[in-house]
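User: Fold this; tokens only.

Assistant: Input:
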Amino acid sequence: MRKYEEGQGRKLTEVVCNRCGRRLKVENGYLREDCIAVDKTFGYFSRKDGISTHFDLCEDCFDELAAQFAVPAETDVETELL
């Protein structure tokens, strides 16, 4: 869950893991630790047609969730991070 400062620009003020509730480190409007951010709008052929969902998971919660997958997620190693 992300919170932004009201006003001219949308300055990030807070990021909370939706699963465990831990506050992630935010400094000067920038997230200072990584997390997975999900923004999904469900479309046709979905029971949630037209509904948008947004949430954040800290790295620990992502690891716990991914460990439960029946089919493991594919992973690659990136040599350049942009």
